[in-house]
Design brief:
The protein has a 3-stranded antiparallel sheet with strand order 1-2-3. By secondary structure, the chain is α+β, with helices and mostly antiparallel strands. It contains 7 helices and 3 strands, in the order ααββαααααβ. The longest helix is centred in the first third of the chain and has 27 residues. It folds into 2 domains: 39 residues, no CATH class; 122 residues, Tetrahydropterin Synthase, Chain A (2-Layer Sandwich).
Length: 180
């Protein structure tokens, strides 16, 4: 008689527990259209207010325009047609300020449609001069390989950075690149 009571009580407690666990497992694994979720737990990481309140970094691009230049090859009969686009990092506040006007800070040629270009207007001649000087100093052999193009992009980022001031250059893209 005691064994029957223990079995009934055990069955009364174990069966609902098994059903609850099975239902939870079904939900967590995304069964029957249930939305799965990811539990993100970080262990032993110190949290301070400065990192929590820090705004995320955003990126904006600005086209430096299409350019045709003579290359530094002997005889001066080779030329390069290129368009260089520069990507800069900005804080969240600057990103919102520059993109609020609807220009988005991407591509573009004129300051009326590209707020980042308008921000750089005071140093635009320096940017264009630097671009011309770097491009015209190259030979076909220096630019013909993928490694040469990567070196050019790194040099452009380094030489253009002073003209970009507070805007940190994060990438340089060669959106057009034709050697003739």
């Amino acid at each position: 008689m005691v064994k029957q009571l223990v079995r009934k009580r055990l069955l009364i407690f174990v069966l609902p527990l098994v059903l609850v666990l099975a239902g939870a497992g079904f939900f967590l694994l995304g069964g029957a259209g249930a939305a799965p979720f990811v539990l993100h737990i970080v262990i032993n990481q110190s949290v301070n207010d400065a990192t929590i309140n820090q705004p995320k970094e955003q990126h904006l691009t600005v086209s430096l325009g299409e350019r045709v230049v003579n290359l530094a090859d002997p005889g001066g009969y080779r030329y390069l047609k290129a368009e260089v686009v520069v990507e800069v990092a900005v804080d969240q506040k600057t990103y919102q300020r520059l993109t609020a006007s609807g220009g988005g800070g991407h591509g573009g040629g004129g300051s009326s449609t590209d707020p980042l270009r308008a921000e750089l207007d005071h140093s635009w001649p320096k940017i264009q001069d630097t671009l011309t000087m770097v491009l015209t100093s190259k030979t076909v052999d220096e630019l013909a390989t993928p490694e040469g193009k990567e070196r050019l992009k790194a040099e452009l980022a380094e030489k253009l950075q002073p003209a970009f001031g507070e805007y940190q250059i994060t990438a340089v893209y060669l959106t057009q690149f034709v050697i003739q």
